Amino acid sequence: MAKRRKEKTEEEEIDFKFPKFDEEGFLRRERRNIKTTFISFLFGALIATISFGFWILLSGNTWRWLLVLLFGVFTASWLKYIFIRLNIDLTNFGKKGWFGTYAIYFVSWMIVLIILCNPPFYDDENPKIDVVVLPDMQEFGNPVKIIAKITDNVGVQKSGITFSINGEILNPESYEFDNIYNVFRYTYTNDSIKNETTLSFTLSAKDGSNHKTEHQGTFTFSDKTIIVPEPLDVDVSPGPRVGSATSIKFKVDADITRLYYTIDNGAPINVTDKEGEYYVTYPKYEGWPKNKNVTMRVFAEKNYTFDIITDKNLNQMTKEELQKFQVKINVNTFDNIIVDNQTYCFRVADETGVGIETPPTAELPKIKIVSVPGFETIIFIISLIVVVLIFKYRKKDKKT
């Protein structure tokens, strides 16, 4: 009995026949798919060209991008009528076919439009100017540095830069501009200023398409940039008597990164403690001598680093790439010092607590590194999405 069942099963398996492959229908469908793909691409490129015209006409309109996007999306509905007009058989085209058609159209439209809206075909962006004044308030006789990062999608040359102080346009030879790192540098010095004075400056940049950006700013010279309001009579020799717990206060009106002082031209002693608007230090720190008349000089430092942009992780860089990146950091890092012209006097007490503690450490601002994905990363992500979609639809076809 079992033998008969086995023979019957084998006969049933032998009687099964694969359905005949419709070669003509397959070729017809493939030709149709090729036609719809090609037409979708051409139509996307055509609509992108028309959208580019609208992009130019709507220059300055805050709704420009949204209006152009809506135009591109709604125009996609014309694809169906184009296929019918060209007598393309849409039988069994299905959701998958329409999805692929609209995807090809939209990607083609977006890529062509992005290419047309950027140099060398079109430039609609003004140069960007990021300015820092080191420092914004300075003591008499000390220099002020005006640094700017000038960037543009088509680039800015030194000939397109105009710089003026109090309305007087300066000779281009008086300032520097690094074409590689787009850094503008100017140092202002004027030993004749003896009264508190505020100066204004204007920096403008024009790119190759005559798009212009202007930045205005000010900086001040004053003998009150740094003062020591407490203890009293510090500007009269031999000065007040101070002990290890005597607070010495500093008031700084400039925007600074670090404040420090020296005793009798010794090693710098950082001032990091604050009480309200005042910086505070004490003679308990190393560098203060016991039972001695001393003089104090005060200094302030302003540091600034423009954002460093990289498309690579620092841990993935080679030794040569790290060296180049360090050069990039150095070129984008700047500093300047405020030197207080006043000398301060103190009579230091003979106390055991004087000059025994280690001075505080000043923390300089950290360099801000901005990581942006490289072009190869974007290509990888797009390729990954395409591969996933291909496998997804292949899996569906196998199930069908």
Q: What's the CATH first level of the largest domain?
A: Mainly Beta
Radius of gyration: 36 Å
The average pLDDT value, as a whole number, equals 86
According to CATH, the fold-level topology of the largest domain is Immunoglobulin-like
* CATH architecture assignment name of the largest domain: Sandwich
Counting structural domains, the number is 3
SSE order, one letter for each helix or strand: HHHHHEEEEEEEEEEEEEEEEEEHEEEH
Alpha-beta content class: alpha+beta
Shape descriptor reads elongated
Strand segment tally: 21
Helix fraction? 25-40%
Main beta-sheet strand count, sense and barrel state: 6 strands, mixed
What low-confidence regions span 5 or more consecutive residues with pLDDT below 50?
A: none
Estimate the strand proportion: 25-35%
Q: Tally the helices: what do you get?
A: 7
| Amino-to-carboxy terminus distance | 37 Å
Description:
By secondary structure, the protein is α+β, with helices and mostly antiparallel strands. It has 3 domains: 23-122, no CATH class; 128-221, Sandwich (Immunoglobulin-like); 226-308 and 335-366, Immunoglobulin-like (Sandwich), CATH 2.60.40. Helices cover 32% and strands 28% of the residues. The chain has 7 helices and 21 strands. It has helices spanning 2-15, 23-57, 64-75, 78-85, 94-116, 319-331, 375-399; strands at 128-134, 137-138, 144-151, 161-165, 168-169, 176-178, 183-188, 197-206, 212-221, 226-230, 241-242, 248-252, 258-263, 269-271, 273-275, 278-281, 292-305, 308-310, 333-339, 344-348, 369-371. The model has no long low-confidence stretch (mean pLDDT 86).
